[in-house]
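Example record

The entry below shows one chain as it appears in the dataset: sequence first, then structure tokens.
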Amino acid sequence: MKLYYHPASTTSRPILQFCADADIRYEPVIVDLMTGEHFSESFTAINPNCMVPVIEDDGFVLTESSAILKYLADKFQSPAYPTELKQRARVNEMMDWFNANLYRELGYHLIYPQIFPHHARQPEIANHAMIEWGRTETDKLLRTLNDHYLAGDDDYLCGDRITIADYFCAALITAGELIGNELHDYANIDNWLQTVKALPSWSDANAAHDGFAAAMKDKAFITLSQEA
């Protein structure tokens, strides 16, 4: 099985960490996003969306990080994707909620327009308005996550055991570290995230991301707590 990915990619990181914990072997194929390799003819023949991650498993090609996690967990019978109907539905709910709600506002409206020129809107006043919208909406969604989904005593998003929702969602939310977001105002989120980060697999799977964030630390960004 081949895994096409970039080590700093937000959506590649949960695959790397889950595979490490589940002892899933794969052939790594790094796609260099920084040089535009994901737009190359050879890669678009695999994924016309020009995105990573992608897996190729004996001729079966699958895109989308969430779908890949579910496929791998099922293929290798991981307890991180429970088979009981309601437990699995809760995992799916959390992954969908993060992907369709929080990541849209946090990633595409707050973070990426500030660090990737091709994500910035024109004119600048429009870009600034979108970033401010993303900041406000991200805060609302984080408070829902903090005060509702993580309001109980469980260590993880969907109970007292780690699931693929934790791998997926922790990677998405830590994308905020690229612009210096801090989560001290969301104590339940911070506690959950520290639990996931304490896993031995976290450090290696997120090393490139951490390096990217460190390289950006001296730049001025609009963050959850800091307006321009």
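Notes for this example: The domain at 2-75 is CATH 3.40.30.10 (Glutaredoxin). The beta strands are 2-5, 27-30, 54-57, 60-63.
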